[in-house]
Amino acid sequence: TAEPVNDIEVYSINIDCKVTSRFAHNVITSRAINRASMSKEAMFKVDLPKTAFITNFSMVIDGKTYLGEIKEKEVAKKQYETAVKRGQTAGLVKASGRKTETFTVSVNIAAQSKVTFELVYEEMLKRNHGKYEMFIKVQPKTLVRNFQIEVEIHEPQGISFLDAEATFITNDLLPAVHKSFSAEKGYVSFKPTLDQQRSCATCSTTLLDGDFTVTYDVNRESAGNIQVVDGYFVHFFAPQKLAGVPKNVIYVIDKSGSMYGRKLEQTKEALLEILKDTAEHDHFNFVLFDNDIEVWKPSLVKATPENLKKARDFVRQITDGYTTNINDPVLKAVQLLDEANALNQIPERSVSLIVLLTDGEANIGETEPEKIQENVKKANQRGYTLYCLGFGYGVNYGFLEKMALENAGIARRIYEDSDAALQMKGFYTEIANPTLLDIKMEYPENAIANLTQNSFKHYFDGSEIVVAGRIIDNDLNVFSVDVKAEGADNLLKYSENVQLQDTDGVSKKQEYIFGDFTERLWAYLTIQQLLEKRVSADPSEKEKLKKQALDLSLKFKFVTPLTSMVVTKPDEIEEETLVADKFVEAQAPSNWVDSD
Amino acid sequence: PHFVINVPSQNDALCFNIQEEPGVVLNLVEDQGLGIAVNGEIIGKKKIGNNVMSNETYFGKLGFVNREMKLRIEVTTETITIMLGKNKKEYTWEKTTSVKKKGLNLVIHKKNNMTLSFGEGAKFVIILHQFLKDDPLHMDFLGFYTLDDHKFSAHVHGLLGQFFHGIDYEISNVHKTKIPDKPDATMKVKNKLLTVTRGSQKDYRSDPRKGKKVPCWFVHSNAEGLIDGTHKDYIVPDIF
To answer: Pick from A578, A588, A586: which is nearest to A59 by CA?
Structure first.
């Protein structure tokens, strides 16, 4: 038997993941028994991906079930305040690693009693570098009699490869991992015996501590694939083997005093690696900033071997400076791209990007975040995509995120660590190979409703565009989509048709995994897009978007930044109320002394 | 002076005042591991003639020591003095200036604030609060903000420093008082029960005039029970 910790024996942990058409439904169940002769505290702690939404949590104690209830955040907050007044702490979800947030709950269980915890969460797996990745954090802390991870994948397009890896895997553990796939189904399981779990033959400690990752991709006979189930459709679009579109990149790099030392060294290391991978048809330039701006070349230059060598020499000599002026260098980057366009210095069919890397708030020049955002939005008339990389803890991430979203880009955190250069390089490789521009996806207008975003500025090789919606025409026989996009050399058109009668068979097959996944996938995608739009919307639009996202979060029972899950757990004196909120990125707090 | 301690795990803040006589120097941060210390000297109790016009006290002088860099910095409401070994250089708040030596980055923003960082580690912001010379109640004073608290060693101490690696507490028995929006409650912290009051303090970094309100649980009696020992234990002989 497993060794009880603090008299609590966790005798079963079951991680059950079912993926249907990229949509993952995960159930983590843990069972424990209190072997002591008095009541003891049992803890349930799960790390789940930041991109996932919790959908349910329950506890069964002595046959009685305590269910989590998903409510509007404000309503839950009131309940939380009542809990605070009763002397109870709240907050079940906390930030943990780079990719994860931690859900923790602990409960007192009577002597010789059992408890079952069950957490359910869902997420849409995103394709990056040509594969989907499902990440499971494994940390049972103790030997567990029945420990198992089971991943079932069902992809109607057929699975092209499937792999499973764990950071803690040893030769002894290898036989415990099974992976197989054929046609549409994939299966991964990991069921280590008690002896396989031991850190050494005579140890009572576990070696299961790390990341378990399942990766796979699907077959792509055509550029797109449409799936229709129960009146909802989802369209996956990932054209293969296209020529790359040239890109014009301005790297706007913060070299202010706070970048001194390792941060600046890592930035230089990343830039040197990025330069190695720059295609000859690309154009680029550097804008370095502290309180001053230093532009490498008066205009963008082509990535010829000679220019790349000069660029590497320039990067190597970057040294740290003084304060941080974010406004002017970003405007300078816009101006450089405007001039390059006006003077036809860059290819007509090309992607123009600005990559801003900063580790702090603006403290000189224009320091008001709203004003900087306004200036950049106003200057960027041609709509260059702005990516903002926030380096380290002191960065005003909310400011960067809004500015990126307002300019068709995204923001990303670069965590201050030994692999920061790798993180920057990793981000670059995601956007390194654009193959399509201005992608417009057209669906039968009168037959559909509730369409998610259907026009995209770029498609990057190895990624995937996903669009979902609802079919409102019950008599529709054929569902078709036309995609128009600018390729490297010409305008490209793609068409996909699907016979709706035929989809019944598909739908039946998919339902065996779990029923309403297409609808849930649509809801997940819609909520994500509404929340993203909300960041850069004006106040009246913001309220509307919030309401739509909230309604969907409540209807589909997702814990999103707008909802909370209220969990009631038994206590020796009275029942206790706890709240699980979605973790939201914020600025690192500080402590201070001042007066007024 | 008002102290504010952020508690991200509770999504809340704690606050307290330390009342001491002008001239007293308090230790704010002491990190033996990094060789960094920050002390602050109290000013206040403005008098006109023999009459005390205000009992408020503030920090009027801050002293920073970086042992490894053999560096001492004195910040008053009028000057900033950098002492590097035997060398000494003085700056005023009248001009935007930056000073950079190996590992030291100091930027003075004219009549406004000053940022100070030692290498990749400790980072501080000092806010200058200025008033008219003939203001009957107020006098110029300084606000002191720490950033990147996680970079300090595990042994960091001092009135602010002891909270850099978090604090656990529980609030119970919230009940109304005579002031409707300031309920009292019981705080369980360090195995003690303290009576605390809901209130707010201000963060003046983004708006040095009005400040941004930060709700917090106020700990009475010079934070007795919350801080290690009593506030008298943090009195040091001088700012260095």
So the answer is: A578
Q: What is the per-residue pLDDT across A238-261, written as a single tens digit (0 to 9) for each?
A: 999 999 999 999 999 999 877 888
CB A25 within 8 A of CB A514: yes
Minimum Cα–Cα distance from A259: chain B residue: B120
Which letter, b or e, does each residue of A16-32 get, where b requires 16 or more Cβ atoms within 10 Å of its Cβ? Answer: bbbbbbbbbbbbbbbbb
* CB distance A138 to A212 below 8 Å: yes
- ipTM value for the complex: 0.92
Phi, psi (rounded to 5 degrees) for B161: -60, -35
Q: What is the pLDDT of residues B78-136, one digit of tens each?
A: 999 999 888 899 999 998 888 877 778 888 888 888 989 887 677 899 999 998 888 87
CA distance A203 to chain B (A): 31
CB contact under 8 A, B144 and A592: yes
Asked if A574 reaches chain B (Cβ–Cβ under 8 Å), the answer is: no
Helix (H) or strand (E) holding A518: helix A517-536
- Give the span between the Cα atoms of A278 and A135, in whole angstroms: 30
CA distance A388 to A252: 9
Alpha-carbon distance of A563 to B50, in angstroms, equals 59
Helix-helix angle A397-406:A369-379, to 10 degrees = 20
Q: Which amino acid is at A492?
A: L
Cα–Cα distance for residue pair A129/A148, rounded to 1 Å: 29
As a dihedral over the C-alpha atoms of residue A594, residue B2, residue B3, residue B6, rounded to 10 degrees, the angle is: -80
Q: What are phi and psi of A466, to 5 degrees?
A: -120, 125
Mutate one of B148, B193, B195, B210 to test the A interface: name it (highest A CB count within 10 A).
B148
